[in-house]
Write a structure and sequence with these properties.
five-stranded mixed sheet, mainly beta, disordered N terminus, single chain, globular, about 0% helix, Neuraminidase
Length: about 400
C-alpha cells in the first residue's frame, strides 16, 4: 500500500513521459574477462575505469580468503589490458581495508587510483585509499564507525586541490549516514549527518556525489523524506543542507540507489530502483528522472520489466548530445540501455545468454569510440562475474 503523504516540496509536480522500447540487435557484447573465484576474486560490485591507453581498472569485492574477512576474502584491485591480460594490483588484508565496492577514480597525470572499502582499516568501518602507479597502497583515512561515519559505499569525488568528497551509508551523529570531505592533509570533516524524518534522508545511496560549478554537492538517500522512499539533497560548501525532493513511491519512483549527474544547465539526472507506475515488479520497476532547477521532477522513462529492464542501481552516463546510458539489474538478467533526448529507450544488450554475465550492479564507462564497458556481479564462464564491453 502506498504512503500518500505529500512530498516535502509540495509546489513541485511531476511530468511523466512513457517511451517506446527498441532493441538494438546490431550491438555486439563481448565478455572480456570471467572471474574464477581464485586469486582474481569474484563478484565485482564496482564498475570499471579506463585510462588513455585502453587499460581497464576495477575492484573485486571478494577475493583471497583471509582470517579477518572470512573465506570470501577482502577483495582486490585489478588491471585488464587491451590484449586481455589480467593482473591483481593489490590484495586487501583488512588492516589496509576490506571489500571495495565502488568505482575507482584515476588521476591521469600521476596514474594513481583512489577508492574506498566497505570495511577494514584501523577502525574496522572502512577506508579511503590511494594506490600509486608503483603499486604502493596508502590508507588515507580509516573510519571509526562513530561520528565520522561507517561503511563508505559511494564512488569518491576528488577536486583539483586533492580534496576528496564522499558519503557513508551509516554512522554520523545520528547513525544514519554522512556526507564528508577529506582534505589533502588527511583531515576528515563531516559536512552533514543525516537525521531521517520528513526534512532529511537516511542512508546515502551507494554511488556517491555530484558537484556543480559553485562547489555544491548533490546526492540521494535510499530512505527518509516525507514518504520514507528516499530523497534528493544538496549540501553547500559550508555544510548547509537542503532537501530538494522527497520521492512519493508511486509514479515518481522510490528507493533511489545510484548517484546523480548534472548538465551544463543545472538539470539533475538519476534513477530510482522502484516505483514508476508499472505493476510488473513488486515495488515498481524503477525510473529515469530529471530534476530541473525549478524543482520539477520529470520522469524520462518508467521501466516495465521484461525486455525493457527493471530496477536500475547505477549512476547514468550522459553524452554531449543528451543521450543517457545506464544498466538495469533485473527484468530478465539485466540490460544495458540508451535513452535518447526524445524519450525513446533503446536496449543495447540483454544479459543472460550462455557464457554471458548477468546482474550488472554498476554503471558503464565509455571510451572515445563510445564503446561501453562494465561489470556483472554474476555469470560468465565460472558464474562469478565478468568484465564486458558493448561495442558501438
Amino acid at each position: 500500500m502506498l504512503d500518500n503523504r505529500k512530498p516535502f516540496f509540495a509546489a513541485a509536480f511531476i511530468a511523466i513521459a512513457f517511451a517506446s522500447v527498441a532493441v538494438a540487435h546490431a550491438k555486439e557484447e563481448q565478455v572480456l574477462y570471467s572471474f574464477t573465484g581464485g586469486v582474481d576474486g569474484q563478484q565485482p560490485w564496482a564498475g570499471v575505469t579506463l585510462d588513455n591507453a585502453g587499460n581497464i581498472y576495477g575492484a573485486v569485492t571478494f577475493a583471497g580468503a583471509s582470517e579477518n574477512c572470512g573465506p570470501s576474502g577482502c577483495g582486490n584491485i585489478y588491471k585488464l589490458t587491451p590484449d586481455g591480460t589480467f593482473s591483481v594490483l593489490h590484495n586487501f588484508n583488512w588492516n589496509d581495508g576490506g571489500n571495495p565496492a565502488s568505482d575507482l577514480i584515476l588521476d591521469k597525470k600521476t596514474g594513481d587510483l583512489y577508492g574506498s572499502t566497505l570495511s577494514g582499516g584501523s577502525g574496522g568501518a572502512g577506508t579511503i585509499f590511494r594506490l600509486g602507479s608503483d603499486g604502493t597502497l596508502t590508507t588515507l583515512y580509516s573510519f571509526s564507525g562513530g561520528a565520522d561515519g561507517n561503511t563508505p559505499e559511494g564512488r569518491l569525488l576528488r577536486d583539483d586541490a586533492g580534496t576528496i568528497y564522499g558519503t557513508t551509508y551509516g554512522g554520523g551523529a545520528n547513525s544514519k549516514g554522512t556526507v564528508y570531505k577529506l582534505a589533502a592533509d588527511g583531515t576528515q570533516t563531516v559536512l552533514h549527518s543525516f537525521a531521517g524524518g520528513a526534512k532529511d534522508g537516511v542512508n546515502p545511496t551507494s554511488s556517491g556525489l555530484a558537484m556543480d560549478a559553485a562547489g555544491n554537492l548533490y546526492g540521494m538517500t535510499q530512505f527518509g523524506g516525507a514518504s520514507d522512499y528516499g530523497t534528493i539533497y544538496r549540501v553547500a560548501p559550508n555544510g548547509k543542507f537542503k532537501l530538494l525532493h522527497s520521492f512519493a513511491g508511486g509514479t515518481d519512483g522510490r528507493y533511489p540507489a545510484a548517484g546523480l549527474i548534472i548538465d551544463a544547465a543545472g538539470n539533475i539526472y538519476g534513477v530510482t530502483q522502484g516505483g514508476g507506475g508499472h505493476d510488473n515488479c513488486t515495488y515498481g520497476c524503477g525510473t529515469v528522472f530529471m530534476l530541473g532547477a525549478d524543482k520539477m521532477l520529470t520522469i524520462l522513462h518508467a521501466f516495465a520489466g521484461g525486455r525493457d529492464g527493471a530496477n536500475p542501481l547505477s549512476t547514468l552516463r550522459r553524452t554531449q548530445n543528451g543521450d543517457l546510458y545506464g544498466t538495469t539489474n533485473d527484468g530478465s538478467k539485466g540490460t544495458v540501455f540508451k535513452l535518447r533526448p526524445d524519450g525513446k529507450e533503446i536496449i543495447l544488450h540483454i544479459f543472460g545468454a550462455t557464457g554471458d554475465g548477468f546482474e550488472p550492479l554498476s554503471g558503464i564507462a565509455m571510451d572515445n569510440d563510445r564503446n561501453l564497458y562494465g561489470t556483472t556481479d554474476l555469470g560468465g564462464a565460472s558464474g562469478l562475474g565478468t568484465v564486458y564491453v558493448v561495442k558501438k
